[in-house]
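Lab notebook: predicted structure, single chain.

Context: the supervisor wants predicted structures on file for every construct in the current expression panel, including those that have not yet been purified. This is the next one on the list. No modifications to the sequence; it matches the entry in the shared construct table.
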Amino acid sequence: MCKCKQFKTTEYVIRTELISVFSVLCLLLLAGSCGNSIEKVSFRNVELIQDIRSSGIVDISSKIKFPVAPAEIDIRFKPNNFWLGVGSAEKFGIRLSNQYGQYIEAGYNSFLQIFFVECRHSSSPEAFVDVPVQFYSLDEVEMLDIRIILDTDSIKLLTMDGMVELTSLYYYSAEFNKIELFAENGKVYVEDLSITQKNINKLTTK
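Prediction complete. Output recorded below exactly as produced.
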């Protein structure tokens, strides 16, 4: 009798533990499906040319789930001999805009030799914000890695192993619904680009 009771008690404990583990797994799965997640989009080998035949703009909006922010954007540019000034883009980077034509930009101006974050055109009337820039000569740089950290009201540019860091606030009348890579007056090559979007709700994102 004692052995039988002990067996039944052990069986009950085992079943209880299994039910508890199953319940925890169900809760974790439910939280994962209803909560936040991370989405990552990658692009490779994009050539940007602005001349009489090409606009110098590549729209990558169709690959992105909006709203974009918060997100981290990593871009590897391969300039076209821009330290020699031969066919290179005078200005290149990334642009986010909305249905009203308001936009923010971040990138490099090889004519002025400055990194920049431009947020004055993010609202109407134009926002009274500074345009942070930092001089940096890219003499004989073969690859340029830029990281953009985009929040819901600020943008940060990081590059040159942390030696360049620019941050600006931005204001907008409507959420950004377009994201583009751009080059002005010349050519630049995007070897690699990845966008990691955070806090994406899987149930509401199309």
